[in-house]
Specification:
The chain is mostly beta strands. The chain is 0% helix and 47% strand. The chain is rod-shaped and about 125 Å long.
């Protein structure tokens, strides 16, 4: 008989040599490949860490590569990669049949956010200055003092003569939720140009 590759079962073997007969049985155990799941593909922002979440049906497993990985012997290590990487989880089989099976998860690293608040500049007191930021989808300026709208890329700032200088901090967020920051310094002239 031919054994099924997925079922364990007992087989009866009968031999016939002329008038003599013999009978015996044997039990064939099929050891399945171990279950392994490395997780769903995902993305992270440059500089962030990601906790991987693997699942296996065996006690013996390993992740690779383990470079820039915290707790690589765990099913849930923390990856701190700076470039897009495939992480492979390999589970090793059982005592009867030490077969191995692997699964992978692809972690896409989104490049750093190039937040730009503009070059440091000068302005005459009580004259409007248009700030022109770039690098993202959402913008947040702080402090919000003297800005007509601190939540847009190009707010207008109006600094009076009684202010010597002002430094604005810009926080930019991309569509993926990644954040970049920059600053601009503005010096106020006390007299007309």
């Amino acid at each position: 008989p031919v054994a099924s590759p997925t079922q364990s079962r007992q087989y009866k073997v009968t031999g016939n040599l002329g008038k003599c007969q013999a009978e015996d049985s044997l039990f064939i155990t099929v050891s399945p490949y171990p279950f392994v799941f490395a997780g769903n593909d995902t993305s992270i922002c440059f500089g962030d860490r990601l906790q991987l979440s693997g699942e296996v049906s065996s006690n013996s497993y390993e992740w690779s590569p383990t470079t820039l990985m915290l707790n690589p012997d765990s099913l849930n290590p923390v990856a701190a990669t700076t470039k897009s990487t495939y992480y492979v989880l390999t589970a090793h089989g059982y005592e009867q049949c030490p077969k191995s099976k692997s699964d992978s998860v692809f972690v896409t690293v989104i490049p750093p956010v190039n937040a730009f608040a503009g070059n440091d500049t000068v302005v005459t007191g009580d004259e409007p200055l248009l700030l022109q930021a770039s690098g993202g989808l959402n913008y947040s300026w702080s402090p919000a003092l003297y800005l007509n709208d601190p939540s847009i890329a190009n707010p207008v700032v109006m600094l009076s003569n009684n202010i010597d200088s002002m430094r604005y901090h810009l926080r930019v967020t991309t569509a993926e939720g990644c954040v970049g920051e920059d600053e601009i310094s503005i010096v106020v002239f006390k007299t007309c140009p």
